[in-house]
Amino acid sequence: MVAPVAAALRAVLARAGRAAERSGRAAEAVRVVAVGKTKPVSMLRQLYDAGHRCFGENYAQELVAKAPQLPEDTRWHFIGHLQSNKVKPLLAAVPNLDMVEGVDNEKIANHLDRAVSSLGREPLKVLVQVNTSGEESKSGIDPSRCVELAKHVKLGCPHLIFSGLMTIGMKDYSSTPENFKALVNCKLEVCKALGIPTEQFELSMGMSGDFEKAVEMGSTNVRIGSTIFGPREYPNKKQNQ
Ligand SMILES: *Cc1c(COP(=O)(O)O)cnc(C)c1O
Ligand SMILES: *[C@@H]1O[C@H](CO)[C@@H](O)[C@H](O)[C@H]1NC(C)=O
Fold first, then answer.
1. What's the 140 CA to ligand 2 centre distance in angstroms?
2. Does domain 4-229 have CATH number 3.20.20.10?
3. What angle do CA 209, 225, 12 make, to 5 degrees?
4. Are residues 157 and 132 in contact, defined by beta-carbon separation less than 8 angstroms?
5. What residue owns the CA closest to ligand 2's atom 2?
């Protein structure tokens, strides 16, 4: 019997593939990152056993705890805002960290660059996180500064591989077509300024509620949590008091 999460993933892959084809690309042009935050490793393992390899987490400690429990060929993505003090422990504990989606300031880029170097790791792929829903904030750089930060990562961080841009949209993990359009505009500006071919550029946009629209608008990487794993269950804090 196919595990329910594996069936849900299969449906997501099919929907993402059809959306890619509607955008004039091959179904394989879009990567689905299975976002398992708050979910047990046993559920992630069911997807691994069904052949899936790409998983995302957005709490550093949770990723550090889960990574050793899945095989080494798992490709982990850290998604969202990363704190400077978590960089070194995260990179040390997760040798198969494949991408950090969420570099939103120069300081964090420099921390990552130094940590990769001092650990003697392979260069690490990173996406610059853009806040497409408002003014500059902690989570994502303002679109007007995306070229500046992309340039810093590409030219000033030799141990990082600048691979593209990522956006969350709104704080509640929803996005509008305007958010996606804003990210596409940033991509065009960055590609032009840094001489990067647009077809070699990643755009991480689209989550459970809106990934098909995001793919139609050019996303190469969708981050899907609840549509695969079901609603997130956060521990009730009161129980700890
Ligand atoms: C949790 C999370 C997701 C997944 O959200 P769903 O709406 O459950 O698919 C995507 N991106 C980031 C950065 C997240 O933290
Ligand atoms: C983007 O910035 C605005 C304004 O600071 C803020 O309200 C919003 O929550 C930010 N979006 C995200 C996803 O953090």
1. 8
2. yes
3. 65
4. no
5. 134
pLDDT lower than 70: segments of the chain: 1, 135-138, 235-241
Token pair belonging to 23: 């955008």
φ, ψ dihedrals at 204, nearest 5°: -95, 100
How many whole angstroms from 33 Cα to the centroid of ligand 1?
10
Structure pTM?
0.94
Q: What are the φ and ψ backbone dihedral angles of 189, each rounded to 5 degrees?
A: -65, -45
Nearest Cα to Cα of residue 152 among 97, 111, 183? 111
- Ligand 2 binding pocket, CB closer than 6 Å: 131, 133-135, 137, 139-140, 168, 170-171
173 CA → ligand 1 middle, Å: 6
What gap in Å lies between CA 193 and CA 134, rounded to an integer? 23
How large is the C-alpha radius of gyration of the chain? Answer: 17
- In the chain, domain spans: 4-229
Residue 158 contacts residue 152 (beta carbons within 8 Å): no
- For residue 130, the SS3 value is strand
Calculate how far, in angstroms, residue 68's C-alpha sits from the geometric centre of ligand 2.
Answer: 33
Collapsing DSSP to helix, strand or coil, 156 comes out as helix
Ligand 1 pocket list (CB less than 6 A): 35, 37, 58, 79-80, 168, 173, 207-209, 223-227
